[in-house]
Please model this.
Amino acid sequence: MYLLDTNICIALLKNHPNAVPKFAQHFQSCYLSSIVVYEPYKGVYCSQKYRTEFGYIITVY
Model:
């Protein structure tokens, strides 16, 4: 079982070459805490590009 943190989730969203293959191997046993799910929303809300980034986050989650 793997509990992913926010940094790993951001790396996956950005298609980081080290993170994606590792995630692909273990995706069935990966989990997110409610805090990790919330953090991108908070980051986007505090961002200057709120409208464009919020739409992206909604489509990903």
Summary: The longest strand covers residues 2-4.
